[in-house]
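Blinded run. Sample ID left blank on purpose so nobody reads anything into the name before looking at the predicted structure. Input follows.
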Amino acid sequence: MTSGAVTTPTAATSPTVAITRSGPDLGPARHLTCRECGATTELGPFYACGECFGPLEVAYEFGADQPVTRASIEAGPQNIWRYQGLLPVPSTVRDVPNLEPGCTPLVPAHNLAKALGMRALWVKDDSANPTHSFKDRVVAVALAAARELGFTTLACPSTGNLANATAAAAARAGIRSVVLVPADLEQQKIVATAVYGGTLVAVEGTYDDVNRVASELAGEHEDWAFVNVNVRPYYAEGSKTLGYEVAEGLGWRLPEQVVIPVASGSQLTKVDKAFRELVSLGLVDDSPYKIFGAQATGCSPVSAAFKAGYDVVRPVRPDTIAKSLAIGNPADGPYVLDTCRRTGGLVEDVTDEEIVEGIRLLARTEGIFAETAGGVTVATLAKLLAAGKLDPDADTVVFNTGEGLKTLDAVSSVVRPGATIPASAAAFEAAGLG
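Blinded prediction complete.
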């Protein structure tokens, strides 16, 4: 695997200064930075700080290779690579086979807004991605970086959506995949991973048990890129594209409020990072926004920490129908707390019953069938409004991160035919359905 130092110009916005690279071609990425102590590390397959063992994230020099403008973005392809100049991916990323996720609908949710008493509401519907969840975004970026760094196998521990995305992306790229999931995962997600033909292993235990096994395997197989372990700094950056798309979809402006589901917490923190990057580049005006995190009560360690005023997150054992959010020890939990507090938002949780009602409410008002994570987000939105903690007159965006067909068991007991009748119009009328 390749890694190395990068020599960069001092003027971040100058497009005329030559760039000398002795390391991997990862676009505007220049090094990795520790989120705790600020120490820097060269670009490579590193995810923990050598000084304090804190998590690493990608640091950039935007515009050094070429300026990033609204026009340059709008001239790009209808997928996340339109934001290539803001991501840690090779210059050839558009030429290599990949799933090309992104540019999913930002749906004006007029009916849902009316039902909840809101003025302006949008749903960012990421069920329109190739494997029907936002995980296609993060996997696409991880795969591009992993290939540049010399990895030969794409792998992951997953609660389901990431498993689908990793297996599919590896199939398209023509490389091997190794995916580990909890044995009690929804059958739909197991099938939607196995169909791609990679190595799929069910592990007895929770996601945190699965993640531990993956971390051990990552140390033993140096040519395996575990997308959310040893290439996590690059993988996490894919979630920024959600924030970019929301701002572009609103006419290059930031929403006043967003509600985002929290599993590991990375998605929420990266949407915030995207908003701040757009402001720093002058692509949107610097306007205030609040970020609200949404969890299931049966796995709500970040919500509990927020309500208790803590800066650390105490791990829990998940017990919820929202399995895609069932991460009891969320890696980015403390950073979610920081982000929500800094922006004036908060973190809330909802029960399984409220999740089901959230799924049904979104479906019957907007025709969007969300998986359980989307139900968590909509139910949290409703709960925050009822409690007076979210402004009904502010421009608001909620995130649906996956397709409801992946979590049919969550609603199968409460949605069914209104009647079963003989095959005649008369029977239809006799049942009082006319």
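Unblinding after everyone has recorded impressions. The chain has 14 helices and 15 strands.
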